[in-house]
Design a protein that fits this description.
By secondary structure, this protein is of the alpha+beta class. The protein has 46 helices and 53 strands. It has an 11-stranded mixed beta sheet, with helices on both faces. It has a 9-stranded antiparallel beta sheet with strand order 35-34-44-43-42-41-40-39-38. Strand 18 and strand 19 form a beta hairpin. Helix 20 runs antiparallel to helix 21. It is elongated.
């Protein structure tokens, strides 16, 4: 490259190949003397194009401009004064130091990038308009009304004769090229030969130039776009009668007048592009605001570091004596802890472990005015940047108020390039700022507070590790493990593996400091120097608890209230605005916000508004569902009423909010219990339906005055009043021999707030651990792949696109937005929401729609028995009495009247049923027994036999309630006919055998009882004796054991838990859907096995081995349930396989056996062989569910409060209840049937398949957009028309996404579950096949196009369009072909994903989709096949300029058509070719549909499943 001569600017003409514009230009370049040359020629053979030097000399003004050619086609110019003011400020040292260096680097990088982009902007594989379809050179078109450049001379006499000026008398020809009365200075300054330059910017050679008369516009018969300058010069020269231009006429700035050159064409270099002086008011404001913020943060950081030195010293000192404090945070290393302080509570009661957090840390902080100012300043600056985006967007459309209203790009000196470039910078800075704020959100506020000791701070920050529940169905592959490890590292680096909660430190009236965390008060202890939750142990001895009946003193109560906090669980439900803000601050919403803003700015706001509307709708659905759930929880958790409390020996009325452990309260009818308490005097009938879901009230009795110990989960449960229950009836006991006498019903408060059972339940619901679905795991890989693909698209854009760097950047932004569509989260939410709506219609309520996707993958369903598989409670089945002195059983009968009088008398009297205003109160079994007896209660304790009965009236003399520890109850009644006193004892058959006279027990007693239990019977035994005493008063002085001794066995009373009518059908359907069902019950093993066999959980003819042991410390004894033979080793039985390849034997275990298996570790190998888990406590149910969750996606179905922990622990919990279990579980059903589980899986599988269908459609949408469409866009420098973009994004993508979601569920559960793996073979094959097919057809469409005679020589020429105005690049054949091909592909995307009848209704059942699809097909087909019409012209397809269409014989349009911006003036495809193209597009659609039907959902998939099955959980169904 030639060196520029200092002070003599020169130009660069860069040709990227060996072809020259014309021979005369070639001759000029070859003859040029380098020492005084004004032009430099760079050949493609020279690979070392010195871009850096070109940029450097452009910046210094040595090079005026660079003109880039490729294959003879003009690609563009780069003006040296583009950043003139910036460079001036650098050279004049206005900007100094680091700023100067940064500006130079940015400037040079910008210039180099523009040079490379311009030089590379060519069509790689063909020459535009050079050859026709047969290889012949094109016959070039005529170009009319070409404007000629001004011809300039130094003397007017040198003008051609036709251009000699001839002014009227009295006028002179002036420098502006016109005649005037006087050539004033202003007129002379308008000399066109000076090219708008003056002073030292005007070359000396141009000073004396004057214009000739203007040359009229010319017509060029054969216009060559790649040598347009020569064609124009030649035509204009001929019009001016210039015979030899090559030697006599030069070009302004390249060949000056001198020698043989007597005239110049005033082809002025492009005017200097406007640029900022960076002294504009808005830039000064930007510097000032952001600089002030930076200074403020710096000052704070320095002050914070100095101010916290004494705290760090105190930490070091505290560490020496064992105190552990939480660490500090810094902006450079946020979240790293120096030390930690344990949150382990001072465990003063059994359930204190609920509040213990051994891995948590505490940090103390205090507000500071400067730090607070920093926080508000950061928020304000972030909002200002967003407002800056809004201002720039308004300026782009000329919508700024004031004097600039209506002026486009007013802030950028009306330069579109400068406007776009500035927006990109502002957009990027805003994006980065929002992402940084999102990442630092958990730490930001506390960084701008001063670190303190936790005991001295205004705030305490609790840092708790997050334990994510993995809802994955299989082990991750190598790639997944690598990405997960990388994600985990990033999560730890950004401190996203922990939960940060900042709590306000408060002070009690006595001066104690505390904070409230997760609804629990943590009080600071000066003794332990720790924050801890306080609970008070009231003891367990009956006498000790009853001894506290006098209540507390006011001082003691105030002390306890100070430590435990109010008896009120406050659930804060945010307002609508706050809830929306909480939803919208997640990463994906930030991503959507920032990319959609690019849509708003770049003349694409219509689609941006549509997408925004869809996103707002989906976000609103999520917000409303969350608020609905939180309001339900608030209604359940918060309760306050007035209650009578014993304080200082007196009864006072106060709010339940002020209750503390140790208080004695009065229980009255209708009261809502707000704490866990124990009944110490009087009787109560409680409605516990809110806890258990059982509608039957439960009778509660007071603690007995004895030496027993109270256990709330054992016999003491009958004396426990639970928070959340309602008192149906309260009755004081004025006289009693074994309980406290009082004229009030008294209860002793044990636990308040979150220490109560209800409080713990609420706390677990409010603060659950997050669940990770396999979709979330693999989405990380997909995002990585799409980001890399986006980078590839950007590189291809830079390489192929014939536009400036700003246009490339915007196309790149759109490519990323289309690959990772902002509608993607909305598509998933809408699919889940529609599934939730369908479930609601089936009376299945969902409070967590995200769990719908998990429910669609359920492999194992654990279900409770009573109330779930069976009907509510037990039903009377029959009796089997013992025949008198023979000591043998009589016949079993279901008719009570066929039994003897003694049996009927026991049935009528031995129970604890009470009549409350016509409602029977008591144990459900007792109620069923009472109903079967047919008797009636009068005056509380008088039993009247039914009409026709041989029984007389009975009066209850004394009753002993059922006690779990005794496993029996007893009653003394008097027959009013004879006055005889009878004792009846009822209890478990084992207990009654032990206390009855041995001579009265039949020899086959155990066998008969076991057979009845094996048949699902709940077996109770009766014993009887007649008392010699006739005075009922004497009975009150006899102990219970004495009364019950010496009884004779009377018979057996059998109840059955009958199956619900549809349970067996539901289990069969679940098994048909490849769902393993196991029974987890608190009932006996034999009953559980019987029910499991009846409903089909245990397959017919299966051998069942029952394992039980007396305690977890003993060995398990296995027994064959049918043969009753002991089994020493179960492995041989598990090795016998049936036709299905699974063992023919099934296992069942009791609660102790289950604990034993867990202790020994054997449960891992036997878990999937066990069908029935019996005698399971709530904690055992949780453990059982968790073990199954390790093997596969597990659901739990239950109906009572005892199922709540397991419902909450499972991947999917469905409560067949309206009680608190329904609040714990993500799903609840008012239809208390196992068919609800079937419906849930059916709808969830359809919802999962629909969500993935939407995901597939949007991924295919992105691939079409960024695949052939974007490649064609970059290669040909074209674009779809603005209206077509809106049709695709606004109607096709959005409309089909919404209608895809309307696909209903399949009628039956399929034997396979829908895929949940984005990177699974089915998804990859579905997406990959359709994408590759679309790419292939798109590429072949251009192969077809280039073979058409009507296209060749009418190709799109990039020199004739403005690349920054993308909406003007569709008026050509290349864009038309891609428009039609891609439009049909987009429409087809929504159709092909609608297949999949296994989980959703068949495709022709989705009527909404068919209507939308049919309309879109007809609409696009009409645009393609019809002659130029109003519809087609609205999308600028098959249309043209009105005059051109008329010349083609189509008639003059009656509608307005903006002139086409191509020389041909239209893009009308010949009719025969239209039908050919239409058939081609239909073939593309047919191929994609066949791929989906035959390969993805049809016989090919079925064959592959058999030949190459995936590694999945294999269990016996």
């Amino acid at each position: 490259m030639a060196n520029g001569i200092s002070g003599i600017p020169y130009s660069v003409v860069i040709h990227m190949d060996n072809s020259l514009v014309s021979s005369d230009i070639c001759q000029q370049l070859e003859d040029a003397n380098e020492d005084s040359c004004t032009k430099v020629f760079i050949m493609a053979s020279n690979p070392e194009i010195p871009w850096d030097r070109v940029s450097r000399e452009l910046s210094k003004g040595i090079i005026n401009d660079a003109t880039i050619y490729r294959n003879g086609s003009f690609c563009g110019n780069l003006d040296g004064s583009l950043f003139g003011s910036l460079i001036d400020s650098i050279e004049n040292k206005t900007v100094k130091g680091v700023a100067s260096v940064i500006m130079r680097i940015l400037y040079r990088a910008t210039v180099i990038a523009q040079l490379v982009a311009l030089a590379a902007a060519f069509q790689v594989w063909h020459d535009v308009n050079r050859y026709d379809a047969h290889g012949n050179e094109c016959v070039y078109r005529e170009k009319k009304d070409v404007v000629c450049s001004q011809l300039c001379v130094t003397k007017l006499d040198d003008c051609p004769a036709s251009l000699q000026p001839d002014c009227p008398a009295g006028q002179s020809f002036c420098a502006d090229g016109a005649c005037h009365d006087k050539c004033t200075e202003d007129i002379q300054a308008k000399n066109p030969c000076h090219c708008s330059r003056a002073g030292n910017k005007l070359p000396a050679e141009a000073h004396d130039l004057v214009p000739c008369l203007s040359i009229p516009n010319v017509t060029i018969q054969q216009f060559h776009p790649w040598k347009s300058e020569n064609d124009i010069r030649s035509a204009c020269g001929r019009e001016a009668n210039i015979t030899d231009q090559s030697t006599t006429v030069g070009v302004w700035g390249k060949t000056w007048i001198g020698g043989s050159v007597s005239a110049l064409w005033a082809e002025c270099p492009r005017a200097p592009a406007p640029n900022y002086t960076y002294g504009e008011s808005y830039w000064i404001a930007t510097y000032a605001v952001n600089g002030a913020l930076a200074v403020l943060i710096l000052v704070w950081s320095l002050y914070k570091g100095a101010a916290e030195q004494h705290v760090r010293a105190a930490m070091a000192k505290s560490a020496a004596i064992g105190e552990k404090l939480a660490g500090t945070e810094s902006m450079s290393d946020i979240g790293k802890a120096v030390e930690s302080k344990s949150l382990n509570g001072m465990s003063l009661a059994d359930n204190a472990s609920e509040h213990a957090m051994p891995n948590s840390r505490l940090s103390g902080y205090r507000d500071h005015l400067l730090g607070t100012a920093c926080v508000w300043s950061i928020a304000g600056v972030a909002m200002l940047w967003i407002c800056f985006l809004g201002v720039w967007t308004a300026d782009y459309y000329g919508s700024l108020p004031g004097k600039y209203h209506g002026t486009l790009y007013s802030l950028a000196y009306e330069s579109d390039f400068l406007e776009l470039a500035t927006f990109l910078i502002i957009w990027g800075i805003t994006f980065i700022m929002l992402i940084v704020l999102y990442v630092l959100k958990p730490h930001l506020r506390n960084y701008f507070r001063l670190l303190m000791l936790p005991s001295e701070g205004q705030y305490v920050c609790v840092v708790r590790p997050l334990h994510e529940v993995k809802a994955t169905e299989e082990k991750p592959n190598v790639l997944q493990r690598y990405v997960n490890a990388l994600t985990d590292r990033l999560t730890i680096l950004l401190c996203r593996d922990k939960e940060y909660t900042t709590c306000l430190v408060e002070t009690t009236t006595e001066g104690r400091i505390f904070f409230t965390y997760q609804c629990t008060r943590y009080v600071y202890s000066d003794k332990t120097q720790q924050y801890a939750p306080y609970e008070f142990d009231l003891g367990t001895a009956h006498r000790g608890l009853i001894g506290q009946a006098d209540g507390l003193s006011s001082a003691d109560a105030a002390y306890r209230l100070e430590l435990t906090g109010p008896n009120f669980i406050q659930v804060r439900v945010p307002g609508l605005f706050e809830a929306a803000a909480r939803e919208l601050v997640s990463f994906f919403y930030i991503y959507q916000f920032i990319f959609l803003w690019a849509f708003y700015f770049y003349a694409y706001y219509q689609v941006g508004l549509v997408d925004t509307g869809v996103i707002i709708i989906s976000a609103s659905i999520k917000v409303m569902l969350r608020l609905q759930s939180e309001r339900r929880l608030k209604h359940m958790a918060e309760h306050e009423e007035m209650v009578a409390v014993r304080r200082d020996g007196k009864w006072v009325e106060m709010s339940t909010r002020n209750l503390v452990p140790g208080d004695v309260i009065e229980i009255v009818t209708g009261a809502h219990i707000s704490c866990d308490c124990v009944l110490i005097s009087g009787m109560a009938i409680m409605n516990e339906s809110s806890l258990t879901g059982e509608p039957t009230p439960v009778s509660k009795r007071p603690l007995r005055i004895d030496d027993g110990n109270y256990s709330p989960t054992g016999a003491g449960k009958m004396s426990t009043l639970f928070a959340g229950t309602v008192v149906s009836q309260a009755q004081a006991v004025l006289q009693s021999t074994d309980s406290l006498e009082s004229d009030r019903v008294l209860a002793l408060v044990r636990f308040t707030g979150t220490s109560s059972d209800k409080g713990q339940l609420v706390r677990r619901i409010l603060f659950p651990n997050p669940i990770s679905f396999i979709f979330n795991e693999q989405m990380r890989i997909v995002v990585c792949i799409l980001v890399l693909y986006s980078v590839f698209v950007m590189v291809m854009a830079t390489y192929m696109y014939k536009g400036d760097s700003v246009a490339v950047a915007f196309y790149g932004i759109f490519a990323i937005a289309q690959l990772l569509s902002p509608l993607l989260p909305a598509a998933l939410v809408i699919g889940q929401s529609i599934a939730a709506t369908r479930l609601r219609k089936k009376q299945i309520y969902c409070v967590d729609p995200q769990r719908i996707m998990t429910a669609g993958k359920v492999q194992i369903l654990a279900t409770d028995k009573t109330g779930t598989l069976t009907k509510e409670g037990l039903e009377f089945y029959g009796v089997q009495q013992v025949l008198g002195q023979q000591a043998r059983f009589g016949e079993f009968t279901s008719e009570l009247k066929r039994s003897d009088e003694l049996m009927q008398m026991g049935m009528a009297s031995c129970h604890a049923v009470k009549d409350l205003n016509g409602q029977l109160i008591g144990n459900p079994v007792d109620i069923e027994q009472w109903v079967a007896s047919g008797c009636a209660l009068e005056q509380g304790e008088t039993i009247v036999p039914p009409k026709g009965s041989a029984l007389g009236t009975l009066r209850v003399v004394r009753r002993f309630e059922f006690v779990h520890a005794r496993a029996s109850m007893s009653v003394v009644v008097q027959d009013e006919r004879s006055g005889q006193l009878h004792v009846f004892v009822k209890g478990s058959f084992e207990r009654l055998k032990a206390i009855s006279n041995a001579s009265s027990v039949p020899g086959d007693y155990d066998t008969v009882c076991a057979d009845l239990a094996r048949e699902g019977g709940y077996v109770l035994a009766f014993a009887h004796k007649a008392l010699a005493a006739s005075d009922p008063a004497d009975v009150g002085r006899v102990a219970q054991d004495q009364l019950e001794s010496g009884c004779d066995l009377a018979g057996l009373l059998v109840f059955k838990n009958m199956l619900k009518h549809d349970t067996a059908e539901a289990i069969a359907e679940l098994k048909r859907g490849s769902t393993r069902v196991v029974e987890v019950t608190g009932d006996t093993s034999l009953t559980g096995i019987y029910i499991a066999r009846q409903c089909g959980i245990i397959p017919p003819d299966s051998r069942v081995l029952l394992g039980e042991c007396a305690s977890p410390a003993e060995e398990i004894q296995w027994v064959d349930v049918d043969t009753r033979e002991a089994v020493a080793d179960i492995q041989p039985y598990l090795s016998q396989l049936g036709p299905d390849g699974f063992p023919t034997a099934e296992l069942a275990v009791g609660g102790c056996a289950f604990e034993r298996l867990c202790t020994t570790g054997e449960v891992a190998s036997l878990l999937l062989h066990i069908r029935v888990f019996a005698r399971m406590k709530p904690s055992d149910k949780v453990r059982c569910v968790q073990l199954h969750m390790e093997r596969g996606t597990t659901a739990m179905c239950g109906d009572g409060g005892n199922d709540s922990p397991a419902l909450r622990a499972a991947h999917v919990g469905i409560a067949l209840s309206s009680g608190e279990a329904s609040i714990v579980a993500p799903f609840s059903s008012a239809n208390r049937s196992m068919m609800a589980c079937v419906e849930l899986l059916r709808q969830s599988r359809a919802g999962l398949a629909t969500s993935f269908a939407n995901f597939t459609a949007l991924i295919c949408y992105g691939q079409i957009m960024s695949g052939m469409l974007k490649m064609a866009t970059f290669y040909f420098a074209i674009s779809l028309t603005e209206n077509l973009w809106m049709l695709i994004d606004g109607a096709v993508a959005t409309g089909l996404m919404l209608t895809i979601s309307l696909s209903g569920p399949a009628k039956r559960l399929a034997p396979h579950r829908p895929t949940s793996r984005i990177l699974g073979p089915q998804m990859l094959a579905s997406v990959g096949g359709v994408v590759l097919m679309n790419w292939l057809f798109s590429a072949l469409s251009y192969v077809w196009l280039f073979r058409q005679d009507w296209f060749r020589c009418n190709e799109h020429s990039t020199a004739e369009s403005d690349a920054t105005k993308w909406w003007l690049q569709g008026d050509n054949y290349e864009a038309s072909i891609m428009s039609f091909v891609c439009a049909f592909q987009f429409i087809n995307n929504g159709f092909v994903v609608n297949y999949g009848y296994l989980y959703r209704a068949r495709w022709y059942r989705n009527y909404a989709l068919l209507v939308v699809w049919g309309f879109l097909m007809a609409f696009v087909s009409y645009m393609l096949l019809a002659d130029p019409s109003r519809v087609g012209c609205a999308f600028r397809l098959n249309c043209g300029t009105a005059e051109v269409l008329e010349s083609l014989g189509y008639g003059k349009p009656t509608w307005n058509i903006e002139p086409y911006n191509n020389p041909l003036g239209h893009n009308v495809i010949p009719k025969a070719s239209r039908y050919e193209l239409w058939g081609y597009c239909l073939g593309n659609m047919l191929a994609a549909n066949l791929w989906q039907v035959v390969v993805i959902n049809g016989p090919v998939r079925n064959w592959l499943r058999k030949k190459m099955p995936l590694s999945r959980l294999k269990v016996k169904l």
